[in-house]
Amino acid sequence: MAPSNALCIVQSEISLLSTALRCHTRIVFRGHQDELRSPLYKSFLQLKSILNGVSSLNEIEPLVYLTPFLEVIRSEDTTGPITGLALTAVDKFLSYGLLELPDPDYADASLSGPGSRKSVAMAAEAIADSGTQARFVGTERSSDEVVLMKVLHLLRTLLLVPAGSLVSDRVVREILQSCFRICFEPKLSELLRRTAELCLASIIQLFFSRLPSLIATSLYQQQIETGMKFGESSSAIDESSVHTTVETNTVCTLSWQSDHTGVAVDQEPKTATVEAKPHPGPVPLNSLCTTSVLNGHLSTEDLSDEITALSPEPNPSTPSCHTQETALDDGSDKQGPSNDETCLRSSIKLFLKFRSPTIVFVHLEKLIFTTIDDFNGGLKIIESVTALDTSIAQPRPYGLPAVHDLLHYLISLLTPERNADGIISVSLGLVTIALETGADAISNCPSLLQLVQGDLTKHLLLLLYSDRVWQFAATLRVCFMLFESMRKHLKLQMEVYLQRLTAICSPDNESTSYERREVALDSVVRLFLVPGLATELYVNYDCDPYCSNLFEDIAKMLAKNAYPVDRLMGTHLLALDALLAVLNTIGTQCVTMTPSGTRESSDLNNSRGTTDALRHVRTRLNRHPTDKSRLPSREQLTAAKETKKILILGSEQFNSKPKRGIEFLQHYRVLHSPLDPTELAHFLRENPRLDKRMIGEYLSDRKNGEVLGAYVRQFNFKGVQIDEALRVYLEAFRLPGEAPLIQRIMEHFAEHWYYANNEPFADVDSAFTLAYAILMLNTDQHNPNSKKQNAPMTASDFRKNLSGMNGTGDFDPKLLDAIYRNIHKNEIVMPSEQTGLVRENYLWKCLLRRAATNQADFIHVQTGALDPELFDIIWGPTVSALSFIFDKTLDPAVQIKAVDGFIRCAAIAAHHGMSDVLDNLVISLCKFTTLLTLGENPSTLSVSLGRNNKALLALRLVFALSANHADILRYGWHSLLDCLLQLFRASLLPDELVEAEDFVSPSRRVRLTTRGCAPVIDAKSRGGKGRGNAAGGSNREVSVFSSFYQYLTTGSAWTGSNDEDDADEEDLHDQYYEQSRQPQCSSANRGVPDSVGASVEWPGRRLEQFSASYWASIGSAATSGSQLDDASATRVAVDTVAQCAIAQLIKDTKFLVDASLIELIKVNPII
């Protein structure tokens, strides 16, 4: 919206610039007549006169008040400061909204006149032309660069304001050209080059944020061209919609060599010339967009896939832009639209509802329909003309061609062997912005998606070999944005990327620096944090017979990286974070939904701590749409995994002996028996694991003639020149060395190519002769031994050798010359056996060929769809890594992270009923408690335990996990009861477990010791009597706990003097008798599981104690346990054992399921 004082703003700028022109040192004003001799000054005087006669700026055309300023910008006689004033003035006009788009509801919005869309578009074009053709007299270098900076700001402002949406593709290319030339000119200052880079970043952000609207505009144009009726579909569309720009120009490449564009400064050195790789040809307009972006508003059932819309560049001498409309012919000609202007506009109104608020407008001045008969019949373009206003040609607004050119040029700058590091760095940053703002829209545009699938991913994969850490990190950032948003279309490219990333992160790769490995591991962490990605890796790669086991390989790599050799470093923690990221994704599904819709644990409704903790659990869903109907069942995935294993084993046997490998696959029914030649040919053609030399040997065998014929038919040679077809054919396998075998293979090739190309020669033998001659020419031109013996053939020699070989005639000389040039320049080799760029290009060609088949189908999977399968793969490496890091680290924060991983593993195992996982965890944690150490003296056990913070943490954790998930505990009971025995010998068990009522005893209570049962001394008389005397004076009366005593003492791991043991035990008990009587947790703190798979408490009240609050509860002893005296260390051990709630665990064993209870009973045969 233009300000109300717009007229005053323009008048003030005129006054300022006129003053500057008068003071120009080159213009000496001695009188009024001399002043009028300056055309620039005269134009401002005329503009003053015009503005004095109007009351509002809307009464005149924008070009009227802009032209004097633009002439100053283009003038070669003005100095830099004056040109800068003009640039600042025009930039201010644009920023203040003086050049505003008309109201779309205005009836004459598209017609000519002040404030019309046409006048605004022409003014925007004029501003752009002036900015890209700015000229001024150079003075000081710094001052000149200030002017260039103002030029950049003007061009940026022009495109960012709403009126900038009306500039043409030509203007966009010239603006981009100017920005790129300044950005890449090394002679300019760093500040100016970075300013140009920022302008490019803003422009790219604008273009790709508008991409949904541009795609919809292109689709809308297609529907106009195909003659679709919009009256019916637009009736349900909001009437407040606006017209949409119709565009028919083809995709053109950026040309950076125009003499009339760019920014030039007098006395400045010539800037470098940057050329963009030309596009192979025009892209059909119907490939520029898809229909998914319109959310079903438009029907495209009648769109033709064979139409290529072409439009010449705008010519001022010709009428305005044209639009071609195509209609389907159903037997009778259909009439064009009505000449009535109102009906015409209402018939093509469209409401575009996208994230981008930008609206592109339709120019309705002229619609041209031409009659063309489609060769398939039925499709015609009907000619009709509706002319509303053709007096002035309106520039056609830019569209998808401009965006395509920009992305194509940015990708060309990523070529490592052609561009410097600085240029690659700038391009990586700009491509990142493009993907951040328009990645989802690119997926809906086939022409842009083709660039991404081809050159972009190829260059990015090559940049992964860069040794420069900053460039490597920037490449990974682009790859992350690319595969996070478009992995559905980049399945095979993503496989190569993750394989290279795994190789870089591998600890066995000594060539990778620590910095690069750290950056790569961080990228893996970010990938695993993407919702659903881990599951998608498993489904699309691990269960695909011809893809690698990506998820499994990455899990193993991360486990290796988590093992510290000398000391704990950042890479070890990053690998652990990646493993925990997968656990976090799986763990969020271990919380069920209550009928009310709130998340709660299924068996812990009474635990307030658990409920509070679960409120913070959030499941991040896959943002991409998922189709459950496409997701295979668990049985199908399991069968696919088994088939894949058989295929891998069969391929290995085939590579050693083909016949044995085929028999192996037939035995497991992967291949039919008897052998189907077509099935086997498909297997040989599609399996990338097969050795190409063994394929050649098998096909050349005379017994396998049917298979060879079926294999040749796998190639599509229609329309392919014979030498190129032969090149593709011989790249699929290695040709054997014997002449008879070569002849057999070449005969099948010649026959298939001959009939696929409509018999171009006299007979099949002629095709065979020419194909064999090509092989001989390849050897003659590129074999070193052949060159030593004879001089290489020339083109005339090649033609002479084939004289009369086409039946009784000759081959076409032009064909022979073309074949000779191709073979002479490009040798037919086995690229897979080469190294360097030849091998890379060949492998990439094979990847693109596979990407064109159904092998590239990618399935999006929702989070939690296959959690048991993922956990079954990852729990082993994860538990090993957690145990190793927990054992090696002394950092409390790292220990807490490891404990959190243990808790998550246990919760997931309990949720899915995986008892072996929990058993493994319990056994590992029992080792960390140091209670299972042989030879430990019970008298010193409590002291050593109290001083070992890690052992205390493991002790609390193992009993908390056992209490929460006791139902699925099996062999873990053995290690758990061994720990209880050691605690009993060290007199660390609570009184509730070692004391009981006994009516025979004088004190009515007895205490279980290693020497038997002893009466408990009353606390009041304890001060006057030693506990040892009371015990010694007793007759060791056997109570009802005698049998339990025998059970506990049987299998003692410690051997020593019983007398010393008894004396030490009595002293310890006297000293800490009162401290050991700690209150126990009530049964309400632990949920009673109903069944295996439902007993889930994650994280639970007890498990919450292993957060940062744990260290606060321990106090100073947690950080300096080794400095405690014996009494304090023992007190810490007693407190920790009391917090383990062992008595409650024993009581709750009566609620165990049968399988767990049976394993508990089996621990000791005496019971």
Automatic annotation (TrEMBL):
GO biological-process terms attached to the record: endomembrane system organization; endosomal transport; regulation of ARF protein signal transduction
Keywords carried by this UniProt record: Golgi apparatus, Transport
UniProt-listed PANTHER family: GOLGI-SPECIFIC BREFELDIN A-RESISTANCE GUANINE NUCLEOTIDE EXCHANGE FACTOR 1, GUANYL-NUCLEOTIDE EXCHANGE FACTOR
PROSITE patterns, sorted: SEC7 (PS50190)
Domain SEC7 intervals: 636-826
Example GO molecular function: guanyl-nucleotide exchange factor activity
Localization per record: Endoplasmic reticulum-Golgi intermediate compartment; Golgi apparatus, cis-Golgi network
Gene Ontology CC terms, in alphabetical order: endoplasmic reticulum-Golgi intermediate compartment; Golgi apparatus
Top-level taxon: Eukaryota
Protein name, as recorded: Golgi-specific brefeldin A-resistance guanine nucleotide exchange factor 1
Broad class of where this protein is predominantly found: endoplasmic reticulum
SMART domains: Sec7
Pfam family, one: Sec7-like_HUS
Region (Disordered): 307-340
InterPro entries in UniProt: ARM-type_fold (IPR016024), Mon2/Sec7/BIG1-like_HUS (IPR032691), Sec7_C_sf (IPR023394), Sec7_dom (IPR000904), Sec7_dom_sf (IPR035999)
